[in-house]
Amino acid sequence: MKREDPGLHFPKAALDLPADPSKREFLRKAAVLLAGLNLPQPSLAGGGQHGAGGSGRRVVLVIFGGVRRAETFSPEGLENIPHLSRDLLPNSVFYSDARNEGVTAHFNAISSILTGNWQRVDDWGKLAPTSPTMFEHFRRRLGAARTDTWVVASNKALTSQIGASSASDFGPAYGANVVFPKQLVIAAIVNAIRAGRTGNMGDRAKVETELESMLESGNYEGLGWTVSDEANHLDPRVRGMIEDAISTFVRSGGPTSGDELTFLVSREVMRKFSPRLLVVILSDVEVAHFGAYALHVAGIRTGDRLAYQMWQEIESNSEYKGKTTLAVLPEFGRDPDGSNTNGFCNHRADAESTRSTWMMVLGASVDKPQIIERPVRHVDLFPTMTELLGCPAMESQGGRLPELRT
After folding, report:
1. How far is CA 172 from CA 25, 28, 394, in A?
2. CB–CB of 112/378 below 8 Å?
3. Residue 184 — pLDDT band, cuts 50, 70, 90?
C-alpha cells in the first residue's frame, strides 16, 4: 500500500498483515508498526496547558454507528480504514478492547458515553438521559456558554434529548446545541414531494434552494434541533454557518451522504464558534439494517475518511491545534455472522462482536503512542474528558483512563 505522507516510515513487515483473523496477531503487527515509526512526536502530543477550565483545552468526539472489528481493526478489515490505521493509529493511544456493557441501541449507547453511566431509557430518544451529560457538567461547573457545546449527528434514532439530562440541578438550561443535518435533507425532500417539486431534487442548484427554504420555515423543533431558547428562531450566526455547509455540500461535486453533510456542518461549527466540546455522530454504516453489506462497508470507508478530515481540521485550525484531544470510537459492534439476529444487519446479540470494539485517542492528552489491550469501557470517557476540560470530578460508573494526560 502506498503511503500519502512521506514523512512517516513504516517497517514493511508491519504493513504486510497476513489474513489471520486473530486479534492477537493484529495487535502484534500493530505494535511492530508503532515501534518502527520514525515519528515527530511533539506535533501531536504538544499541547494544551494543564489546569482548570480557563486553559482553553478542547475535546472532539467522533462516534461511529455499529461496526465490527472484523470490518475494521483486523488484518482483513484494514483495507476499509486506511486513514484510521495508517494516518491516525501510529500517533494515538489505541484501546483494542473498548466495551459497551449497556444497551446496544443508539440512544442508550451514545447517552452512556456522554454521561459516564450506563443508560436504560427509551431506545428512540423519547426520554432524556437520567444522569448529567458532559455538556451539563462542563457548563454548570465552569460557566461555559451554550455555544461552547455542540452535538452534530446523522443518526435518526437520536433526538434533541441527547443534549441534556433529566437530572435535577442540571437539565436543558445547561445542555448542548443539537443539530441533525440529515433531517434537514429529509425534510426538504418530503416538502418538495408534497409541493410537487420532485424534479428539483435532481438539480444541485435547486436542491440548495429547497434546503435553504427549510431553514426559512422556522420549524427547527420539527427537525429535532435545539439551537436556541426558541424553537422558531435561529441565531444569524448559526443560520449562516448552516447555509455555508449546505453550499459546500451541494456545490462541491463530491459525495452527498448524510455523514458528509454532518461533517461539513461540524467543520463550520468549529470555524464559526470554536466550541470546546464537540460531539460528531456518524451513521452511514447503519444502512446495514437493510442487509446491504457493500453499502455498510462503504459507510465504514466514509467514516474513516471523515475522521481523518476532522483531525486535519483540528491540526489546521489555530483555535484547536495543540490543545485538542480527539477520540474516535464506534457505539458498539454488530452481531456475529450466523447468529439468529441476522448477523451484521443488527446489534442486539450479547456477543463479543457486538460488545467489544475499539477506541483511539489523539492530540493534547497523548504523551506517547501506545496500544492498550486492557479492556476499557465507553463510560470511562466521561470522567477522562471532563477532567481534561477542567471540571471537578463527578461520581459516575466510569473511571479515568490513566494513559491520557489530563
Report:
1. 46, 46, 19
2. yes
3. low
- pLDDT tens digits, residue range 251-291? 666 666 889 889 988 998 999 899 999 999 999 999 898 89
Indicate whether 219 belongs to any domain.
no
Strands 376-377, 93-99: parallel, antiparallel or unpaired by DSSP? parallel
- Domain assignment present for residue 360? The answer is yes
Domain containing 322: what range? Answer: 42-174+275-388
Summarised one tens digit per residue, pLDDT across range 14-33 is 334 444 455 666 666 565 55
List C-alpha distances in Å: 230 to 98, 171, 176, 244: 38, 16, 14, 22
pTM of the model: 0.80
- With residue 352 as reference, give the H or E element that holds it: helix 352-355
Using only the alpha carbons of the chain, give its radius of gyration.
20
> Could you tell me which residues are beta bridge partners of residue 377?
99
Q: In which element (H, E) is residue 234 found? A: none
Tabulate helix, strand, coil % of the chain (nearest 5).
45, 10, 45
Looking at the chain, the whole-number percentage of residues with pLDDT higher than 70 is 70
What span, in angstroms and rounded, lies between the C-alpha atoms of 306 and 138? 26
| Gap between the Cα atoms of 182 and 284, Å rounded | 11
- Residue 130 to residue 326: CA distance in whole angstroms: 26
Provide the CATH number for the domain around residue 351.
3.40.720.10
Residue 80 lies in a domain: yes
Domain count, the chain: 1
